Structure formats: C-alpha cells, structure tokens
Queue: 2 jobs
Job 1
Amino acid sequence: MTEAAASSTFTPRVFSGIQPSGGLHLGNYLGAIKRFVDMQDRGLNGTPIETIYCMVDLHAITVWQDPAALRQNTRELCAGFIASGVDPEKSVLINQSQVPEHAQLAWIFNTVARMGWMQRMTQWKDKAGKNTQNASLGLFAYPALMAADILIYHATHVPVGEDQKQHLELTRDIAAKFNHDYGVEFFPMTEPVIEGAATRVMSFRDGTKKMSKSDPSDASRINMTDDADTIAKKIRKAKTDPEPLPDTLEGLTDRPEARNLINIYAALQDITSEAAIVEVAGQQFGTFKPMLADLAVAKLSPISAEMARLMQHPDEIDAILSRGAERARVIAEPILRDVYKIVGMVR
Ligand code: AQP
C-alpha cells in the first residue's frame, strides 16, 4: 500500500491531546492549544476540517497522580482549552477515559506494536530514567495508547510540539503493521503538523531543556494561571546572556536562551522568528524583556481570567465533557467494531 493511497481515502480530521498531569504552561499553549484553535477556526490550509481535542487522563496516570489533583487538573485543562478559544460547539472536546474505545483499541495495538519499538522512544527513556524496572507498564505502552487516541477517529492530522514527533512516527508504524498484517487499508498514515515559531518552548532556567509541567523549578515556566506580576517577574529573571540581540537568526546560534525568548515573542504575535529578530535587532535584554513581558501579559492574562471564571462552574465543564464524549463515540464506536471484525473477534 502506498502512503498516498492510504491517506487520500480518509476524510481529513484533526486529533490532538494534552495530559492533565499538572498545570498548563506556555509551551503547551504555544506548541499545542493555540494551534488547535487556529485549525478549528481556519481549517487546514484554508479548508475546513473536523477537530477533536482531548484531555488524556489515561496517559497522565502512567506516572503517579493524586486522584483529587487529577480531577482538578482535568477540569482546569478543559477550562484552559475553552478560555484559549477551543469552542465545544465547533470542536469535539473530550476527556479520554469517558470514551472507552481509546483504551479498547490500545489493547489491540499492544499486540501490534513491538517491544523494540517502544524501547527506542526517547520519552520512555527520559521518564523511566535508569530505574526502568520500577516504571509502570503503562508508561512503556504510552505510545500505543497515543496511537489509539488518534486512529480510533481515523485522524489524518495531529498538531503537536516537536517533542511528540517520534510518537507520531510510531503511530504510523502501528497503522502500517496493522494494515499489512490483516491485509487491509483500514488505518490512515497520520501526518504530524509541527508548525510555527514555538514548536519547542524551552525552560527559562536552561535553554537546552524543554519547558515542562514536571520541572521542579516553577521559575522555569510560565503557567497559564500565573498573574501579570508573576509572568513579568519570570521573564525578567529568565536566563539570558550579556550580548545585544543580533539582526539575523544565525546570530543566535549557540545562544539558546535568547533564541527561546525570540521564538516566544514571535509566536505570541503570530509572526515568524525571522520577522521578530529584525524588529528587535540591536536591543539589550534590559529593553527586550519588558517588551516581551508586556506582550505575554496582554495575551495570557485574558486567558487566565477566563479560566478562573470557568473553574467557578465545574458542573458546566463536566456537562461539556459528557456531551463531547457522546459526539466522539458516534465516530469511535463503528471504527472499533470494524477493528474487532478485522481481527476476528466474535461479536
Ligand atoms: N515546551 C514545549 N514546547 C512546545 N510544545 C510543547 N508541548 C509540551 N511541552 C512543550 C506540547 O504540548 C502538547 C501536550 O503535551 P503533554 O502535556 O501531553 O505532554 P508533555 O509533552 O510530556 O508535556 P510536559 O509539559 O513536558 O509534561 P510532563 O512534564 O508531565 O512531561 C504536545 O503537543 C506537546 O508537544
């Protein structure tokens, strides 16, 4: 089966997810949610496309989550999606565990994926660390569940940050092996969509590490719930170097912290990093950082205010997720039924 043949027969559909494993941060917003909203509102290359966005709580529990915190983080993540512009009328907005077909298809994929594939995943190596014997089986199988999240909707496009590229390649490997083993053209060859100036937002403490929920240093990231003063303070204190900003991106080679701030500045304004560096060429960080802080506060404060308002109404959030699950299952149920038929399950 050629890739072109595989992808051309499927209705274009977008799926992506975020783990409720902690508070949302600027990396999640610029690398993922902001782009989810663009796809929902502008479609893919101008063509309208169906969009499904998910809080992946089953993924979150592959490392320990306090149950009360998980519930709170799931609702807060849903509020973050909506406050950022994901419209539950336009997009299907779901919590993963409320659509059981994800986990059901993941089991089938556990039998398709190979141990060697999983062992090569850098996220597995990073998160399990040296003590792999003590990591959960779920953490090891994480990419098979992610493949199921995507393929249970026959999703053709997945907007993600750079760090998820390898998992998307594995999703294609699983789809291709399933199709090959069962002699079908059932699953699409899903395309990752990794675009924009901020596909990899880095830590404010170390420009070689990605900004992450699990970084023990709160100063390493901007949380979407941070107030204006905290945002400004974190940007002011972000690690940089003593040189002024150059007039081309080449001038930022070997200056990862400066490059990170330029990428953030560009992504917040929806311009390219090339355009951003031209705009601020020659500035010292003493001038650039306050400008970046003002921009970040202007863009992020309305979102955090709306998140706080939505969090006053957890029942409404739960109702949105129930409705989303119903809509999602209309797509997922028949696909799972067909998978069981293909595999030979008596139903
Ligand atoms: N720093 C980042 N820059 C750009 N995009 C990012 N994403 C995450 N961090 C950055 C993108 O956000 C989406 C959801 O990520 P996730 O929460 O499911 O998992 P993650 O990548 O493991 O996020 P964290 O913050 O790093 O969580 P922890 O600390 O728990 O491991 C994905 O599209 C991801 O690319």
Job 2
Amino acid sequence: MLYPIQNSHRNKLDLSGIWDFATDPRRSLTPEDLPGEQNWRPMAAPGSWNEQYEDLFGYLGLGWYVKKTHVPQSWEGQRVFLRVGSANYFAAVYVNGVKVGEHEGGHLPFAFDITDAINWDGENLIAISVENELRPDRVPSGNMPNSSMSMFASTPPTTFDFYPFAGIHRPVVLYTTPQTFVEDLTVITDIDGTDGVVTVRAQLNAEASGAGTVKLTAGGKEVAATVLRFAGGLAVVELRVPNARFWSDTDPYLYDLTVVAEGSANSGEDAYTLKVGIRTVRVEGGQILLNGRPVKLNGFGRHEDFPASGRGLNLPLIVKDYQLMRWTGANSYRTSHYPYSEEEMQMADREGFLIIDEIPAVSLQMADEANFPERLRMCLQQTDEMIARDKNHPAVVMWCVANEPMHAGVGVGALGESDPRIEAANLPGKRFLDALVARARELDATRPVTIVTVMGGPQSWMEQCDVICMNRYWGWYTLGGQLDVARQKLAAELDQVWDRFGKPVIMTEFGADTIPGYHGHPSVMWTEEYQADYIRMHLEVAAEREFVAGMQVWNFADFAAVQSIARVGGLNHKGVFTRIRTPKMAAHVLREFWVRAAAPVRAEPVTA
Ligand code: GCU
C-alpha cells in the first residue's frame, strides 16, 4: 500500500478540508439521495466528528461526508484512485452515486480505482459513509453483554481505555498512476561490514514483463543503481552501497530509492521514490541490537489525540510532540493501540525514533470464544494491512499484534504473579495470539514480533514473543500509595520473567494518574509528586537490570478516555504532559534519566 506521491508520471489531489456532513442514525439515506436537502453541516476531514460538535460527542452511528470536486482533464488516460488514510470504523465510498468500495477497520488506509466512475467534464460528487458502532465481534470490541454492570462501567461502553472517536481521521486523496504501474515495493536492508545491502522487490499491478531501473541516491548523488527485469510483474534485485551511512536513532540517515518501470505500448513509464534507511534489528540474548549494537527503547505509549481534532491527523501536533519527546530524551514509542498515521511513520524515520507498531487488538476478551472467528479475521486483516503499509519504514523495529488480551477472571488489582492454573485455563487465547504472531512473522521475517501483556495475565501467552513486553502498574492499580513495596514486587517480577524466558524485557506501560497542578507533601496518589516518585522508582529498578531493553511510560500525554468513575473529566491523566502538552513534574524526571544518560561523557580535564 504505497503512499501516494506526485511526480512526472503520477498525480495527487488532496481532498482534505471542510466537507458537508449529516448523521443518518436510521441508515435511511441512499447515495441517490445525495446531496439532497439533508441537514448538512460543515465538518473538517481529517478529524473526529465527536470533538467538532457537542451533539455529536457521543454519536457513533452512521454519518455521511460529501464533497464535490473536479478531476483534472489532464489525468484522463491514467488510472485514478480514491484513497482514505483512515476511517473509523466501517466506511463505504461512492463516486457520482456509484459504490466504488467499502472497508472495515480503522487506522489503516484503503483505496479504490474510480476511473470508470469519473465525470471528466464537470463536478464529481464524492460521498463517504462512516460508522463506529461498538460491537463485541469488532476489533477493538465494545457493547459487551453486561458491560454496564462492571465497576468500571464506561460511557460509551468500550472494553478499552480511550475514546472511540469516529470519522475520517486521515486524508482523502485522489491519485493517478499509469495503466501499468509499480503497485508494491518491499525494501529489506542488511549490513555487510561497512557496506549496506539493499534488496528491492518491485511488484507491478499486472503480470507484465519488461525492463526498468532502480537507483539509490544520497543527497541527490547516485550511490548504487541497476537494471530491473520484470517477469510476471515481479523484479527482485540487490544493491550494494560501499561505506554506507546506516540509519539509527542517533543518526537517522535516509537515502532516496527510485524504481522506474519502463512504459509499453498501452502504458506510459512509471516511477516511484521512497525513503530508505539502511539498518538491521535483531534480538540476541537479553538485548535488542540495532546495527549490531545494543539499544534501549525508552519513551512512551501514546495516543493520536487532541482537543477539537480528536483522533484526526494533526500535523502541527506531530511536529510539536516529536520535539517534546526529544526534549525528554526519549528515542522510542509504541503506536498504542492502533497504527498511527503514515505522516507519523515518516517523522519517525526522519527524526530517529524506534517504533513498536501495533494493530488495534486492544483488550480483546479471550474468554469470549464465541467471537473468536470474527475477531481473528479482523486481527489477521489488520496485521496484513499494517505490515503492507509500514514494512519499508526503518523506524519500525517491532510488530505488536495485541495489547493486553484479557484472560478469564482478570481483575485490575491482579497481583502480577503468573498463576499456572490461569495458563492452563487460557489455551484457546494462546492459540489465537500464536496465530497472530505467526502471521506477522510469515509476512516479515526481518523484525521481532511481540504481544503486550496485562498484569496477572498468563505468562505462557508470551512464549512465542521475541521480546517480552509487559504493562505493569505496581504502585498504582496494585499497592497504590506503597511505592516501597511496589518496588520490590516490580523487581521480583522482572527477575522472574527474565529467569523464565531469557529474552529482552520492555515495560511498555507503567504510569500513575496525575491531576496537573495538584501537589502534595507527603506525595499521595494523584499528585504530581507521586507520579514523579513512581516514575523515578521504575527507572531506577530498570537501570539495575541489563535485560530491560526499554522503558515506555504510560502515557506521553493526558488523553480522552471514557466517562467512568476512574477517569476524571473523561480523561486518562497518566500523561507526563497534559492534553495540551504542558509538562508535569514527571517530565523533568525523565530528562534526569534519559537526557543526562545520553549526554556525551566529557573526559575529565587532565590535571597538570
Ligand atoms: C492498560 C491499557 C491502557 C490504559 C492503561 C490505564 O495498560 O493498555 O490502554 O490506558 O492500562 O489503565 O491507564
């Protein structure tokens, strides 16, 4: 799923902006009715509708977006596609009343060939319907039976701890390609001494044979090139870059790779260019190695979340968040709990952040086997789509195929120790998760694969993982206000997990809800002092253990959760920054550990 680009062979028209929007709670509208005299209102896309209108805050039913556009006549003769970067949760797309396709699942792009539906001599009506109904068989799930009975009953009734924002969350783009075009590229990089080795797999949209070229440039200067010979639409070549500059979090160097497919009788030439970072990532013993050297993945769990834009793409926020993460000394984050925008992945490549890329399989109820088939189908689809989209980003160093799958009888206050009885009772869940890990490995053998486990969950679920990723809340959900005891329990559990698996451990979540500006002495829970003490304790415990390969605070910033007795003002307040990005005391604690630790150690002046 290549990102749309404009070049001398391809065109692109971004339809981001203010669309017309109308709700359709009874699902009574048909494309023929559009635009008609509905109660249209202005709606920004990208953007969640929930945060743009007070009466839509809780609305998750069907909504219609419509927009009229000309298609440049110069495009006639090419293939024209309509691509949506993300629509949460189920979308259908119509052009001039003709249905061109539909897609299930948020946070991942989809595109349809709309060439035959275009009116070249006038305006075209684009209509996109979206709904985000919470259902037990969806991924993520909601509206579970008896959900209103639980102590953490939430509104809306999700099974996950973030607001189920709905709408078109990323750009809607028209783009063109020649009739025969480069449909997919897979770039795999390796290191041989000081040489970079770049394997390129180029796939055309047709089983065409023919020639082409591939070249790698550094700052416009060619460093490697070769010819392509397409057979059955496929060409695979290897480029060698002498004395290559490798990509890393400390030196995120990017080359430009351009693939050209020569034209034929019925199709013009095509070219596609993408950024390439030459790096390797692998697990060895208790370490994660980037380019053969141990690396720590220190940073955050995050959310795509901000007032007014909701989960919608917010480019100024992305730039600001990367500066703030850099300011704390972080070099990594997890795309909790869904793939983030392609623009984020491009920033991570450019800025040098190590990404754990995660599908939306958050809090899946693993005792609820009746819904396994539907959920497994969606999880496999999301794994396929995430890897197809992100496989060429050097910043993506790990795939995560589930966050906190919930076993039977889980309690938020679970005491963390794994119970063999729980492991025996949760074999169906293990089979489900093992299937997802296997799928990710089958699609990409070059990156570690993991699942993120919940406190007290079956440790056997981690057996297939290359890296042990744990969310633990010692000193918050368990032993709250008792940081000394929590410290011992955390240390004991980390050591037990290392003894059992002998694999690198990343704490993918640890955090404490903190009301910004709320102080206390003694530092009781919910105060900024408590969060600072809590995070300091965790980083100290981790620093004593070489097998801890990363510490990711939950969360980078306060974010919209759901209405419940545990979420003050409907927000999760575990951010080290507030929702509008002002730092709490804990942000300064991170700088103590991550910025000073990373600062170059200056040699002591030689005394005479
Ligand atoms: C879980 C979950 C997060 C949630 C967090 C919390 O670990 O993965 O999505 O926000 O706990 O309760 O704050």
